[in-house]
Hints:
This protein is α+β, with helices and mostly antiparallel strands. The protein contains 2 helices and 7 strands. The strands form 2 sheets. Strands 1-2-3-4 form a 4-stranded mixed β-sheet. Strands 5-6-7 form a 3-stranded antiparallel β-sheet, with no helix packed on it. The chain has helices at about 10, 15-25; strands spanning about 1-5, 25-30, 45-50, 50-55, 60, 65-70, 75-79. About 15% of the residues lie in helices and about 40% in strands. The longest helix is centred in the N-terminal third of the chain and has 9 residues, at about 15-25.
Amino acid sequence: MEVGSRSTGRRDYTVKGEDYAALGIREYWHFDPSGGEYHDRPLVGDTLTDGEYVPIEVVAESGERHQGYSEILELELWW
């Protein structure tokens, strides 16, 4: 899980994602405490499929709460 910050936000979901895919990291989650300023969205999950990351569904409830599910960790993630 990457936690977004002003200094690393863009790199977290571009260059690092490519590196993690090359290493075979099966899921890659991004948490943005700013609500989307650093990673474009508050919570994003991707799963590695055929060497590329494919988005995991993240459900927005009332525009304030965002929830995704990690099948690998068997864990609900909330923002």
